[in-house]
Amino acid sequence: MPINLPFVFRSPVPTERLYLRLMVEDDVDAVHSYMSRADVCEYLLFTPRDREEVAAKVAEFAAHTTLAADRDYLELAVIRRDDERLLGHVYFALESVEHETAEIGWTLHPDHHGQGYASEAADAVLGMAFEVLGLHRVVAKLDPRNDASVALCLRLGLRHEAHHVQDMMFKGSWADTGVYAILADEWSARHR
Hints:
single chain; 8-stranded mixed sheet
Protein backbone atom coordinates (compact mmCIF):
# COMPACT_ATOMS: atom_id res chain seq x y z
CA MET A 1 0.00 0.00 0.00
CA PRO A 2 1.49 3.38 -0.95
CA ILE A 3 1.80 5.94 1.84
CA ASN A 4 -1.27 8.21 1.96
CA LEU A 5 0.00 11.73 2.65
CA PRO A 6 -0.89 14.44 3.20
CA PHE A 7 -3.51 13.27 5.65
CA VAL A 8 -5.95 15.75 7.19
CA PHE A 9 -7.69 14.52 10.33
CA ARG A 10 -11.34 15.46 9.81
CA SER A 11 -13.54 12.76 11.32
CA PRO A 12 -13.43 11.17 14.77
CA VAL A 13 -12.05 7.62 14.89
CA PRO A 14 -14.58 5.34 16.61
CA THR A 15 -13.80 2.30 18.73
CA GLU A 16 -16.09 0.01 20.70
CA ARG A 17 -16.32 2.30 23.76
CA LEU A 18 -14.46 5.43 22.66
CA TYR A 19 -13.83 7.85 19.88
CA LEU A 20 -10.71 9.86 19.13
CA ARG A 21 -10.98 13.44 17.94
CA LEU A 22 -8.93 16.61 17.67
CA MET A 23 -8.68 18.66 20.85
CA VAL A 24 -10.78 21.79 21.24
CA GLU A 25 -10.71 24.76 23.60
CA ASP A 26 -13.43 23.23 25.77
CA ASP A 27 -11.01 20.39 26.65
CA VAL A 28 -8.71 22.60 28.76
CA ASP A 29 -10.18 21.72 32.16
CA ALA A 30 -10.27 17.99 31.46
CA VAL A 31 -6.69 17.98 30.15
CA HIS A 32 -5.54 20.12 33.08
CA SER A 33 -7.07 17.59 35.49
CA TYR A 34 -4.31 15.13 34.56
CA MET A 35 -1.48 17.28 33.13
CA SER A 36 -1.33 19.11 36.48
CA ARG A 37 -0.63 15.91 38.43
CA ALA A 38 2.88 14.93 39.54
CA ASP A 39 2.06 11.20 39.27
CA VAL A 40 0.99 11.63 35.63
CA CYS A 41 4.07 13.70 34.74
CA GLU A 42 6.54 11.39 36.48
CA TYR A 43 7.61 9.74 33.20
CA LEU A 44 6.70 12.57 30.82
CA LEU A 45 9.14 15.18 29.50
CA PHE A 46 7.43 18.01 31.39
CA THR A 47 6.56 18.84 34.98
CA PRO A 48 2.97 19.47 36.11
CA ARG A 49 1.40 22.31 34.15
CA ASP A 50 -0.85 25.07 35.42
CA ARG A 51 -4.14 25.86 33.70
CA GLU A 52 -2.63 28.64 31.58
CA GLU A 53 0.11 26.33 30.28
CA VAL A 54 -2.45 23.63 29.51
CA ALA A 55 -4.68 26.14 27.68
CA ALA A 56 -1.72 27.12 25.47
CA LYS A 57 -0.91 23.45 24.82
CA VAL A 58 -4.51 22.56 23.95
CA ALA A 59 -4.61 25.49 21.49
CA GLU A 60 -1.35 24.22 19.95
CA PHE A 61 -2.67 20.65 19.78
CA ALA A 62 -5.95 21.81 18.19
CA ALA A 63 -4.01 23.60 15.44
CA HIS A 64 -2.20 20.41 14.39
CA THR A 65 -4.60 18.68 12.00
CA THR A 66 -2.43 17.53 9.09
CA LEU A 67 0.25 14.90 8.65
CA ALA A 68 2.45 15.63 5.64
CA ALA A 69 6.10 15.95 6.69
CA ASP A 70 8.55 14.64 9.28
CA ARG A 71 7.58 15.67 12.84
CA ASP A 72 3.99 16.62 11.92
CA TYR A 73 1.82 15.34 14.74
CA LEU A 74 -1.66 14.87 16.12
CA GLU A 75 -2.71 14.93 19.79
CA LEU A 76 -6.04 13.14 19.78
CA ALA A 77 -8.48 13.42 22.66
CA VAL A 78 -9.73 10.05 23.93
CA ILE A 79 -13.46 10.43 24.55
CA ARG A 80 -15.68 7.83 26.25
CA ARG A 81 -18.82 7.42 24.16
CA ASP A 82 -21.37 6.80 26.90
CA ASP A 83 -20.78 10.08 28.76
CA GLU A 84 -18.61 12.15 26.37
CA ARG A 85 -15.88 12.37 29.03
CA LEU A 86 -12.30 13.11 27.96
CA LEU A 87 -10.14 10.36 29.49
CA GLY A 88 -6.73 11.34 28.09
CA HIS A 89 -5.00 11.66 24.75
CA VAL A 90 -2.90 9.78 22.21
CA TYR A 91 0.12 11.36 20.53
CA PHE A 92 0.93 10.36 16.95
CA ALA A 93 3.79 11.87 14.93
CA LEU A 94 5.38 11.19 11.59
CA GLU A 95 8.96 10.27 12.41
CA SER A 96 10.16 9.75 8.82
CA VAL A 97 8.09 10.03 5.66
CA GLU A 98 10.94 8.49 3.66
CA HIS A 99 11.03 5.43 5.93
CA GLU A 100 7.24 5.37 6.46
CA THR A 101 7.66 5.45 10.24
CA ALA A 102 5.65 7.15 12.97
CA GLU A 103 5.80 7.44 16.75
CA ILE A 104 2.95 6.84 19.17
CA GLY A 105 2.48 7.84 22.80
CA TRP A 106 -0.38 8.10 25.30
CA THR A 107 -1.45 9.78 28.51
CA LEU A 108 -4.55 8.81 30.46
CA HIS A 109 -6.03 10.25 33.63
CA PRO A 110 -5.26 7.78 36.47
CA ASP A 111 -8.98 7.50 37.29
CA HIS A 112 -9.33 5.59 34.03
CA HIS A 113 -6.33 3.26 34.27
CA GLY A 114 -6.84 -0.50 34.23
CA GLN A 115 -10.01 -0.48 32.13
CA GLY A 116 -8.50 -1.10 28.70
CA TYR A 117 -9.10 2.43 27.41
CA ALA A 118 -5.45 3.12 26.58
CA SER A 119 -5.17 -0.18 24.68
CA GLU A 120 -8.37 0.53 22.76
CA ALA A 121 -7.34 4.08 21.85
CA ALA A 122 -3.75 3.24 20.92
CA ASP A 123 -4.84 0.26 18.82
CA ALA A 124 -7.23 2.52 16.90
CA VAL A 125 -4.34 4.90 16.16
CA LEU A 126 -2.19 1.98 15.00
CA GLY A 127 -5.04 0.97 12.70
CA MET A 128 -5.13 4.49 11.29
CA ALA A 129 -1.33 4.41 10.83
CA PHE A 130 -1.31 1.16 8.92
CA GLU A 131 -4.71 0.93 7.21
CA VAL A 132 -5.35 4.60 6.37
CA LEU A 133 -1.89 6.15 6.10
CA GLY A 134 -0.15 3.05 4.77
CA LEU A 135 2.86 3.38 7.06
CA HIS A 136 5.39 0.58 7.49
CA ARG A 137 6.38 0.92 11.16
CA VAL A 138 5.28 2.61 14.39
CA VAL A 139 7.53 3.06 17.41
CA ALA A 140 6.93 3.99 21.05
CA LYS A 141 9.79 5.58 23.01
CA LEU A 142 9.31 5.61 26.75
CA ASP A 143 10.88 5.60 30.16
CA PRO A 144 11.53 1.90 30.84
CA ARG A 145 10.62 2.45 34.51
CA ASN A 146 7.04 3.13 33.38
CA ASP A 147 5.74 -0.41 33.90
CA ALA A 148 2.21 0.47 32.76
CA SER A 149 3.39 1.82 29.39
CA VAL A 150 5.77 -1.11 28.88
CA ALA A 151 2.87 -3.50 29.54
CA LEU A 152 0.66 -1.55 27.13
CA CYS A 153 3.30 -1.80 24.39
CA LEU A 154 3.44 -5.56 24.84
CA ARG A 155 -0.39 -5.90 24.86
CA LEU A 156 -0.49 -3.97 21.58
CA GLY A 157 2.04 -6.34 20.03
CA LEU A 158 4.98 -3.95 20.00
CA ARG A 159 8.30 -5.72 20.43
CA HIS A 160 11.04 -4.43 22.72
CA GLU A 161 13.80 -3.37 20.33
CA ALA A 162 16.23 -1.30 22.37
CA HIS A 163 17.15 -0.04 25.79
CA HIS A 164 19.31 3.08 25.53
CA VAL A 165 21.22 3.63 28.77
CA GLN A 166 21.44 7.20 30.08
CA ASP A 167 20.83 8.64 26.64
CA MET A 168 19.00 11.78 27.71
CA MET A 169 18.97 14.39 30.44
CA PHE A 170 15.57 14.05 32.09
CA LYS A 171 14.48 16.49 34.79
CA GLY A 172 18.02 17.06 35.99
CA SER A 173 19.49 13.56 35.79
CA TRP A 174 20.42 10.99 33.20
CA ALA A 175 17.67 8.62 32.14
CA ASP A 176 17.21 5.58 29.91
CA THR A 177 14.89 5.19 26.92
CA GLY A 178 13.04 2.02 25.96
CA VAL A 179 12.13 1.56 22.30
CA TYR A 180 9.20 -0.63 21.21
CA ALA A 181 7.94 -1.10 17.65
CA ILE A 182 5.47 -2.90 15.42
CA LEU A 183 5.35 -3.34 11.64
CA ALA A 184 2.26 -3.05 9.46
CA ASP A 185 2.17 -6.77 8.63
CA GLU A 186 2.53 -7.68 12.31
CA TRP A 187 -0.38 -5.41 13.26
CA SER A 188 -2.47 -6.83 10.40
CA ALA A 189 -1.77 -10.43 11.47
CA ARG A 190 -3.08 -9.61 14.97
CA HIS A 191 -6.33 -8.21 13.53
CA ARG A 192 -7.32 -10.97 11.09
